[in-house]
Amino acid sequence: MSGSIPFYQKHHRHYDRNYRSTEADSKMRHYQSSSRYSAGTSLSTSSRGLKVSSHSGLEENRLSPLPKRSKPSYLALDKENQIIGYVVPIFRGSQEFATGLSDTEEARVRDTAAYMAHRDLFTSGLEMERSEVISRKEAMRESAERISLNKRIHEHEEHFKRMNEDSLMHAPEFVIKPRSHTVWEKQCVRLHCTVSGWPDPRVIWYKNNVAIDPLANPGKFKLESRYNVHSLEINKCDFDDTAQYRVSAMNSQGEQSAFASVVVKRFKGEIDDTLPVPRLGPVSEYGITFQIHIVDTFGVSFGREGETMSLGCTVIIYPALHRYQPEVQWYRDDVLLSPSKWTHMHWSGDRATLTLTHLNKEDEGLYTLRVATKSGYETYSAYVFVKDGDAEVEGAPGAPLDVRCLDANKDYIIVTWKQPAVEGGNAILGYFVDRCEVGTTHWVQCNDTPVKFARFPVTGLVEGRSYIFRVRAVNKTGISHPSRVSEPVAAMDPADRARMRGTSAPWTGQIIVTEEEPAEGIVPGRPRELQVTEATKNYVVLSWKPPGEKGLEGVMYYVEKCVSGTDNWQRVNTEIPVKSPRFALFDLAEGKSYLFRVRCCNSAGVGEPSEPTEAITVGDKLDIPSAPGKVVPTRNTDTSVVVSWEASKDVKDLVGYYIECSIVESDVWEPCNNKPVRATRFICHGLVTGEQYVFRVRAVNAAGLSQFSPISEPVEVKAAIASPAPPYGITVLECVRDAMVLSWKQPTFVGGADITGYFVDYREVVDGVPGKWHEANVKAVSERAYRVSELRENRKYQFQVRAANMAGVGIPSMPSNTFLCEEWTIAVPGPPHDLQVLEVRSDSLVLLWKPPVYQGRDPVNGFYVDIKEGDAPEEDWRGVNTKAAEKTYLKVKDLKEGQTYVLRVRAQNKAGVGKTSDVTEPVLALTKPGTKEIVVEVDDDGVISLNFECSNLTPDSKFVWSKDYEEITDSSRLTIETKGNKSKTVFNSPGEEDIGVYSCLVTHTDGASSSYTLSEEELKRLLEVSHDHKFPIIPLKSDLAVELQEKGRVRFWLQAAQMSSNGKVDYVFNDNVLSQGDVSEMFNSFFMKS
C-alpha cells in the first residue's frame, strides 16, 4: 500500500487518516463541502416547470483558503427555494435542449447559436472551476503541511521539555485559594483550590495542623484531585469540625500553603456538653506499625533576654515512607505552643526545630517535643533557662514577666504580672504600667506613683479601641527594662460583646444565636449578689449580677458608696452609668471602711438599690506569703543539683517560688530560675563540678516576695551514683557440647561509679517458645566474657546480662539471639572480642582487642584488621595490614579528618583466617580540643620520665599507665607519680627491658589517652642525654700546666670556664686517684686555679 503513495506524500503523515490532526480534518471537510455546494452568480432558467437559481448551503467564502469567484449553480429549486434535484445541460449535438425542440430551421439555427453560447459559457466555467479546484488543493496541501510542521515542532518541544525538566520546574502556586465557610450543623461543606506547579505538586489537607486521613474517619472526609483542582468535602458537619483548615502543596521546588476557616453554628437549645470520646490504643496506619526514635537531641540550654535560640531533634521513623509526615507538637511546661512572632516551628522531613526569635523570661521552662503517629508517640524534654538582660543602670531590677489582662471593660482593664527574681542592689519599690494603642508606637505611663501590688486597673481608655500593655520595675537605683508586651485587648464591655450578632468565635468556642425583643417602659429591679472581688489600698473592684427580669431595655448601673457608720450615700459614677456588671473604684481613703451598693437604670427610670456590701476597710487584703521551710539539696549530675523544700504555709494566690544558690563562703547569690515554679522541687542546672553550693527559696504572689527560707546544708556538685544501664551486643566466642563462652559490650551509662561485675542469665527456647530464666553465675564476674556451663547439647538458648556497681544491679539487657549449643569443629579460629578504640586523632587511632577463645585446630599466629567508612556498604571493607599482626593492638593511620569509621578483627592460624569479630561503634576521626600527648623529659639529675596532662578530669578520674597496652603493676622498674591533672612515670634504671609502647589512659573522661613508643634507638639517645646531664663536661679555659718550684716541688694547675661550689676535683697519678696522705704531700702544691 505504501508503494502506491507518491514520493511527495510519504513525508507527510497527515495524508494518512490515522495520523490526520483535528485541524486538518476540519479543513478537508470544509473544502469538500465548498466544492460540492458552492455557487456563483444567480442564473434563472425555466425548464419543465423547474427554476434554476444560485444557492449555497455553506458559507464557502469564509471557508475557502483562496478568494472565491461567483460560480454557476446547477441546482433545481422549487418555489420555496428548496433543493429538489439537479439540472444537467446536454451538449455534443443533442437536438433537445433544456428549453424543448424546434420544428423550424430558423428556430434550429437559433437553438444552435444558443447551444454554442451555452457551450462556451459552460466550458469557461468548467475551466475556471478546475483551476479553482487545483488552487484549493494546493492551498489545502500547504495548510496541511503547515499543520504537520507545527505538530512536529510541538512534539519536539514536548520531547525537549521532558528531557529538560529543570527549565520548567517551579514551586507550587495557588491559582484559586480555598474560601472560608460558616455553616449550620449537619450541613456539608466543600473546600476547593486550584494549584499549579511542575512537577505536579502533592496536596495534603490539614485540620488544625493535623493531617486529615479519610481512612481514619470513613465517610467523614472525602478528598478529590482532578486536573489540578483539589477539594475537601466534610460530610454532616458537627461542632467539632469548627477549625482552621490548611491545604499544603509540595513538590521538589518548594511548598506553599493556603488557609480556610470553617465555623459550624448551633441553634439555641442544641448544645451538647459531652466531649467526644478519645480513641484508645495505637492504631496502625494503612496496616503499618511505626517505630519512632528521637536522636540528636537538644540539651539543657541557657539564654539571655533578647537573644535567639533554636531547639532541634532528629526524628527517625521506621519504616520510612516517602513524604509521610507525623504529628509534631511542641510544649512548654505541658502547654501546647502555637506558631507566633515569638515561636517559629519547622519540620524538614526528618528534623523538628523550634526557634525562639526573641527570648524573654516567659520563654523559660521545660520544653517537650512530641512526635506522634497512629501507632503511638515518642517525647523528649529538656529545660531552657533565660537570664535577665544587662540592665541599663547597674543595680536596677530585672524586668517583670507574664503581663496579662484579666478583665476588660470600656471603663478599665485589669493588668497583672509576675515579679522578677532579680531585685538588683535594692528592694523593688513598685511598678509602672504603660499602655499603647494598637497600630501606634506611642507608650503612655498609666500610673504616676509606683504600685507594689502586681495587679492594676488601667482607666482612661477609649471604648472600642484595642491596647497592649507592659510593666517596668523600679528601685532606688533605677528602672528595669520593660517586660514583654501583653496580648492586644479591646476596651469594651462584655455585655456589648454578647449583644453583637454574627461575631466569629474562636475555633474552640460555641456560637449560639439568640434573639430577644426588649421590653419597653419597665423600670429594672435590684441588682443581685453584689460583692467585693478585689480590695487593695489603691482600688476596690465590685461585681454583681443583673436583675432577674428578662428582656429589659438597655439596663445600665450606678454605683454608690458610703463611709461606714454613716448614712450618706454618694454616687460614684455621676455622669455616665456603666453597662457591665463590674466596676473599679479609686481615690478611696486608706484605712477607712466603706459600704457599696448598685442601682439599675434605663430609659424608664432608676431602680431600687441593691443590698449594700459589708464594711470594707481600704487596704491590701492579700498578704505576702510566709517563708518556705527546710531546703534539702540532693546530688543529681556533675552540673546539676535537685533542690526540694517545704511549701509556705497558709499562702493565698501563690504564684510560685524562686530558688537562689551560692558557692560556699562566696556570699554571692545567683538565681537558679527566672520564672516562678509552683512545685516544691526543682533541678538547678549550670553549676560548677566539684564546687560546694548552698541554696535558699522564697515564695511570691501578687502582694510581693516572701522572706528567704533557711539556707540549706552544703552539697558538692557531683554525679549521683545510680545502677548502670544494661550491657548489649551479646555474642558466642566458643561452644562445646555442654557449655558456651559469651561476650558482651560495656553499658553506655555506668551510673557514676565503676562497674564491679556482671551477672549472666540463660533460658532454653523450645520450638520458638522461651522458658524461664536461670542464673548462670551467683558471684559477679569482672571480665566481659563468661563460660556458661551445664547446658544441653543440640538445645537452643537465649542469654541476658546485668551490670552492677556500688548503687546495685542494673536492669538486664535485651535477650540475645537464639544460639544452638553444639560443639565447634572448624579448623580456623573463632572471633576476637572486646574491641576497644583509643588515642583517636584526626589521622589515626589505636585498636585493641582480645584473642579468640576458640583457637581452632592450631594456635593463633596473627590478626588482620579491617576498616570501612561508617555508612559504606559491606563490600567496602578493606584490610589495614597486609601482614598479620602478632600483637593484640594496632595503630591505624592515614584516616580522613571528620570521617566516621568502623573496624573489625580476624584471627588466623595455620588452617586459615577465622570468623570476624563484632564491629566497633562508629568512630569519628577528629582530634578533640585540649588533647595532650605524652612528653619525654630528662631532668638535671639525668632521670628519664614520661609525662601526661589531662585538662578535663572528673573527681573520679584516674591515670592508668600501660606497657604494650597492659597495665603496669610492677613498680621495680617504673615509678608512677600523679599530682592534680598531671601524671609522671619515672624509669628507675633504664635498660633494654624497658623497650616497648607506653600509653596512658584517663578514666571517666571522653577517651583522653596517648602513647609513646620507646624503641632501641630512642632508648640509646635518652641514655646519652641522661649521662650528659648526670656527668656534664666542664669546658676549660687553659690546658694542664706544670710549674717547677724550689726544693723539688712541682705545681700542676689549669683554669675551668665555670664550676659551682658543689664541684668535685679528683687527682689522678699514673691512673691512680690520689687521696690525702703521704703521697699527696708530694703534690701539696697541686691546686686548681679558677
Keywords:
extended, 1090 residues, 38% strand, mainly beta, 6 helices, six-stranded mixed sheet, 75 strands, disordered C terminus, Immunoglobulin-like
Could you give the topology of this structure?
Layout: H1 22-37, E1 46-47, E2 50-52, H2 60-63, E3 75-77, E4 83-86, H3 105-163, E5 170-176, E6 181-184, E7 189-198, E8 202-207, E9 210-211, E10 221-226, E11 229-234, E12 243-251, E13 254-267, E14 291-295, E15 301-304, E16 309-318, E17 327-332, E18 335-336, E19 343-347, E20 351-356, E21 365-373, E22 376-387, E23 401-408, E24 412-418, E25 430-437, E26 443-445, E27 455-459, E28 466-474, E29 489-490, H4 494-499, E30 512-513, E31 528-535, E32 540-545, E33 556-563, E34 570-571, E35 582-585, E36 593-602, E37 605-609, E38 616-617, E39 631-637, E40 640-645, E41 654-663, E42 670-671, E43 681-684, E44 692-701, E45 704-705, E46 715-716, E47 728-735, E48 740-745, E49 757-766, E50 769-770, E51 774-775, E52 785-788, E53 796-805, E54 808-809, E55 819-820, E56 833-838, E57 845-850, E58 862-869, E59 878-879, E60 889-892, E61 900-909, E62 912-916, E63 923-924, E64 935-938, E65 944-949, E66 959-963, E67 966-967, E68 974-979, E69 982-987, E70 996-1002, E71 1009-1014, H5 1016-1030, E72 1041-1044, E73 1050-1053, E74 1067-1069, E75 1072-1074, ...
Parallel strand pairs: 6-13, 13-30, 15-22
Antiparallel strand pairs: 1-2, 2-3, 3-4, 5-7, 7-11, 8-9, 8-12, 10-11, 12-13, 14-16, 16-20, 17-18, 17-21, 19-20, 21-22, 23-24, 24-27, 25-26, 25-28, 28-29, 31-32, 32-35, 33-34, 33-36, 36-37, 36-38, 39-40, 40-43, 41-42, 41-44, 44-45, 44-46, 47-48, 48-52, 49-50, 49-51, 49-53, 53-54, 53-55, 56-57, ...
Helix pairs in contact: 1-3
InterPro entries: FN3_dom (IPR003961), FN3_sf (IPR036116), Ig-like_dom (IPR007110), Ig-like_dom_sf (IPR036179), Ig-like_fold (IPR013783), Ig_I-set (IPR013098), Ig_sub (IPR003599), Ig_sub2 (IPR003598)
Keywords: Cytoplasm, Immunoglobulin domain, Muscle protein, Repeat, Thick filament
Domain Fibronectin type-III: 399-494, 526-620, 627-720, 726-824, 831-930
